[in-house]
């Protein structure tokens, strides 16, 4: 059985930077908190937790700093970013803030703010429950989030619309949404491309590979938006596509009788997860299964 790994897969620069920052801080400090999971990968979050990183769901769960000397608690802003209101609360609690927000997410936040200041009704194409999108909403007041064409009823008639998108969306979906929005009534439409090129590279690489193999595995957290997007795209071109978090979820019956297997991984999937899966899969294939 031949195992082929996608040319572009695994950690993107933004995620790699966030992990590096976290690991560096944890070598120096004990009280380090992450406002939400630093990335959407359970295995990586658990590894950092063992090193001392405490993940909390909201600012209220973090003990306040002190009025004397250096702040006693450090808070890491995850790669998905945080809303201005959350940052303000952290500062009020006298906490030391370390920002690991992806630079492309920061760009998206800034663009949303500028569009809002310019009189545009800001529209984000993405998942309203994703932390990246929730943070962006905080930068532009009354933002409209649309996930698909069924959500377009939310758009006001005859308005100035400023369109941006969640960084991990696919170009195909964004193109479809922009076409649908363009058929509605508006006075002005301004579109700024906020897609992540790294995510696009992984999508293109995965789609190309999945067309060439019998079975396709997409590795990464089930809660990871970019990994789910990879799995959805691959499934479209290869019905034998499976989204797994790690080797523990491997089902040998899936590859029974298959000659070629493809492997890709989301931008939040660590290299050791990919390596372990690929090596175990090769070993399994060499047994003659």
Describe the protein's architecture and organization.
The chain starts with a strand and ends with a helix. Helix content is 38%, strand content 18%. β10 (215-219), α8 and β11 (241-244) form a beta-alpha-beta unit. The radius of gyration is 21 Å and the shape is flat. It is built from 9 helices and 12 strands. The protein folds into 3 domains: 2-10 and 198-286, 3-Layer(aba) Sandwich (Cobalt-precorrin-4 Transmethylase, domain 1), CATH 3.40.1010; 13-102, Rossmann fold (3-Layer(aba) Sandwich), CATH 3.40.50.11270; 104-191, 4-hydroxy-3-methylbut-2-enyl diphosphate reductase, catalytic domain (Cobalt-precorrin-4 Transmethylase, domain 1), CATH 3.40.1010.20. It is α/β, with parallel strands linked by helices and 289 residues long. α4 (103-117) runs parallel beside α5. The strands form 3 sheets. Strands 1-12-10-11 form a 4-stranded parallel β-sheet, sandwiched between helices. A 4-stranded parallel β-sheet has the order 3-2-4-5, sandwiched between helices. Strands 7-6-8-9 form a 4-stranded parallel β-sheet, with helices on both faces.
